[in-house]
């Protein structure tokens, strides 16, 4: 299942790679989602992309393209494209076309009138010859942008219907002006009437199946659907297909409940036919036989609707870890279905970020050096330690339910028994995470300018922030959690309810301590000995202060990762008070936390790491409890109030989505000699173009 990082806050959430706990990182500012049954990683990764970020900045690449309602539209770059072979580029190209041809399916799935609404909007945008400067027009245009963003008339995240701010009369006049007056009677209530299709997925209603606008069911009740599948499913089957995943359930005039299967020749057949044609072209230029083989399964599944073939495809796909190019194409996530059975169509094409993946490998290869040289007591160190390296990818195309609101991590397949018996693939998407970062800095009002004390601090953050933040996450995940050992007599459960916060503290400290180590410069991971300071400043600023914009006023700080950050920042503030290591400053009534002595701060991180490792290794519950209770839980009400007010004043958009770059064949003498990535610069332009080019239903 995909998971939106479920926080309407300024920082995005990620799940700790090894500890499998929900976390929020300070990398990013908007809600994001992940694909996959587990809420995994995401903060891991963006890794070396910051080098390309920097280059991009210098090229004047613009990330933030548009902002409206509660949304913002960004672009992402495709680093590494030129490193692909012509054949790999051709493979990506056809996979991308296959992805984009599924666009109309998700529109139809979200609500049966969505495609009609979209076509009317497209008609107006393309053909209306009246005044396009009026307030009414602007309100119409904002509505159009919102519909495109949500792939329909319901909010992509909240699932409730949103409305145009212009009047129904005005909307009707637009429809009439472009020759769509015949559709008014049907569509205007769909667009304007709050009682018609109020929510895509209605939870807690009388009948969540009958009342939800989502188009997975027609004319059936929840009880009928449940009975239908109860009769179909064999509970003793240890390897069941995902019953109902690729169909709509309807009751005909004969009163019989049946499935309309998504397949070539069935429901959404014309779209699936196009997808299959492109997949077959892709298979012809795939990297290896494994890819050819699972694409053949996928095509056979789309042609037959046979869910056994979907499972076979997934089993082969999950084992393909050698290919550079990879993709998701199918009815995958069941979140949009009130019964959690039917999957929304999505597509995504990506390839491995070799440079960034190389960095996590490098860290991992040197795991023993880091362990041996850590400031903890030798009794608590592992004599043999293995690092974990993470695969990092960049996307080249987003489609279906992944477009424009996109995932930042993938963990698939979803079928439990396949995960159990064959494993799952888990990756983070570096170029999207990076685009979120870069776009955030392009907003005139942003967190950095609001909460950083000086221009120097801002400059350091812009220069090194993304790189060191990602590196900190890598160190936390690839080494931190795996470091250290318990004394033989210590119970792994000795720290009880404080164990999560303390474990995160330990992993974060391991990363913070080593960020300032010359070893990272020596390994070529950091450019110089100044870089780490950006992360030290932002870590303290966030841990001691800005992260509390996510906590309701008056509440305690309860989430393990937020606790760990507060614990570290507050402890270091207190211990460094005499030497003014971290200083609390006030200017124009606003509070700032400023690091004055970076080396001393590193020393404090080392001291606390040694102590937290001791607590863990010895299972010292009382000492662990004291650290968490004294430093991590209680938020200063004055600071809390201030951060909430200052955050609100920024007016940040909570949700983001992306324009795709276009992959364009370059011909020479009638032959394709290359594929170029061309960055689109118009949100509505791309939507209208897709509306024409990939219209199938
Ligand atoms: Zn962690």
Q: Can you describe this structure?
A:
The radius of gyration is 26 Å and the shape is globular. The strands form six sheets. A seven-stranded mixed sheet has the order 1-4-13-14-12-11-10. A three-stranded mixed sheet has the order 5-6-17. The protein contains 26 helices and 19 strands. α1 (49-59) packs antiparallel against α18 and α22 crosses α23 (598-618). Mean pLDDT is 90; it is low at 1-32 and 37-57. With 697 residues, it is α+β, with helices and mostly antiparallel strands. The two termini are 26 Å apart. The structure holds zinc ion. Zinc ion binds at residues 16, 19, 476, 481, 504, 507.
Strand content: 15-25%
Average pLDDT for all residues: 90
Low-confidence parts: 1-32, 37-57
Query: Gyration radius, to the nearest Å?
Result: 26 Å
The strand count comes to 19
Estimated helix fraction: 40-55%
- Our measurement of the CA-to-CA distance between the termini, rounded to an integer number of angstroms, reads 26 Å
Shape: globular
The secondary-structure class comes to alpha+beta
Helical region count?
26
Largest sheet: 7 strands, mixed
The largest sheet has its strands arranged as: 1-4-13-14-12-11-10
Provide the list of bound ligands, each named once: zinc ion
């Amino acid at each position: 299942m995909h998971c939106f990082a479920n926080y309407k806050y300024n920082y995005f959430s990620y799940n700790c790679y090894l500890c499998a706990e929900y976390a929020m990182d300070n990398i990013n500012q908007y809600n994001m989602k992940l694909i996959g049954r587990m809420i995994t990683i995401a903060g891991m990764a963006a890794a070396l992309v910051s080098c390309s970020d920097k280059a991009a900045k210098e090229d004047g690449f613009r990330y933030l393209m548009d902002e409206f309602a509660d949304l913002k539209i960004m672009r992402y770059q495709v680093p590494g494209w030129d490193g692909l072979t012509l054949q790999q580029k051709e493979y990506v190209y056809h996979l991308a076309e296959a992805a984009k041809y599924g666009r109309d399916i998700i529109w139809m799935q979200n609500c049966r009138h969505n495609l009609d609404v979209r076509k009317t909007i497209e008609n107006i945008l393309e053909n209306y010859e009246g005044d396009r400067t009026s307030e009414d027009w602007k309100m119409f245009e904002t509505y159009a942008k919102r519909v495109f963003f949500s792939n329909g008339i319901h909010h992509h995240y909240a699932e409730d219907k949103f409305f145009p701010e212009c009047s129904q009369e005005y909307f009707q006049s637009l429809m009439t002006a472009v020759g769509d007056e015949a559709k008014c009677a049907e569509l205007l209530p769909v667009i304007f009437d709050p009682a018609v299709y109020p929510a895509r997925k209605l939870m807690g209603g009388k009948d969540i199946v009958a009342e939800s606008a989502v188009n997975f069911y027609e004319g059936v009740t929840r009880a009928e659907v449940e009975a239908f599948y109860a009769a179909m499913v064999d509970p003793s089957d240890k390897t069941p297909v995902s019953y109902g995943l690729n169909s709509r359930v309807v009751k005909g005039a004969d009163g019989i409940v049946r499935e309309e299967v998504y397949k070539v020749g069935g429901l959404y057949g014309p779209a699936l036919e196009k997808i299959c044609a492109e997949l077959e072209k892709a298979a012809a230029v795939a990297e290896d036989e494994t890819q050819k083989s699972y694409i053949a399964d996928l095509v056979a599944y789309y042609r037959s609707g046979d869910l056994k073939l979907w499972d076979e495809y997934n089993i082969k796909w999950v084992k393909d870890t050698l290919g550079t190019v990879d993709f998701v194409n199918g009815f995958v996530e069941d979140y949009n279905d009130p019964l959690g059975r039917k999957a929304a169509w999505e597509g995504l094409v990506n390839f491995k970020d070799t440079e960034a993946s190389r960095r996590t490998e490098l860290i991992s290869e040197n795991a023993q050096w880091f362990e041996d040289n850590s400031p903890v007591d030798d009794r608590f160190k592992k004599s043999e330690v293995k690092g974990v390296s993470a695969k990092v990818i960049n996307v080249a195309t987003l489609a279906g339910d992944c477009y424009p609101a996109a995932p930042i991590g993938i963990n698939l397949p979803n079928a439990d028994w396949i995960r159990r018996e064959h494993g799952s693939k888990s990756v983070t998407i570096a170029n999207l995470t990076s685009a979120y970062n870069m776009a955030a800095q392009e907003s005139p009002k942003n967190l950095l300018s609001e909460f950083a004390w000086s221009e120097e601090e801002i400059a350091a953050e812009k220069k090194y922030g993304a790189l060191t933040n990602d590196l900190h996450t890598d160190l936390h995940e690839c080494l931190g959690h795996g470091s250290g050992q318990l004394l033989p007599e210590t119970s792994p459960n000795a720290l009880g309810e404080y164990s999560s916060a303390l474990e995160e503290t330990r992993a974060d400290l391991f990363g913070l301590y080593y960020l300032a180590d010359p070893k990272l410069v020596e390994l070529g991971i950091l450019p110089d000995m100044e870089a780490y300071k950006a992360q030290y400043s932002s870590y303290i600023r966030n841990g001691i202060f800005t992260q509390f914009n996510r906590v309701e006023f008056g509440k305690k700080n309860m989430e393990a990762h937020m606790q760990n950050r507060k614990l570290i920042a507050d402890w270091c503030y207190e211990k460094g008070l005499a030497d003014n290591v971290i200083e609390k400053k006030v200017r124009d009534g606003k509070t700032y936390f400023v690091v004055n002595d970076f080396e001393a701060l590193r020393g404090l991180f080392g001291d606390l790491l040694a102590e937290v490792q001791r607590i863990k290794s010895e299972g010292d519950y009382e000492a662990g409890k004291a650290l968490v209770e004294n430093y991590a839980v209680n938020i200063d009400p004055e600071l809390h109030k201030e951060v909430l007010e200052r955050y609100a004043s920024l007016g940040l958009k909570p949700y983001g989505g992306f324009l795709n770059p276009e992959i364009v064949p370059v011909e020479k003498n009638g032959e394709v000699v290359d594929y170029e990535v061309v960055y689109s610069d118009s949100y509505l332009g791309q939507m209208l173009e897709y509306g024409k080019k990939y219209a199938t239903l």
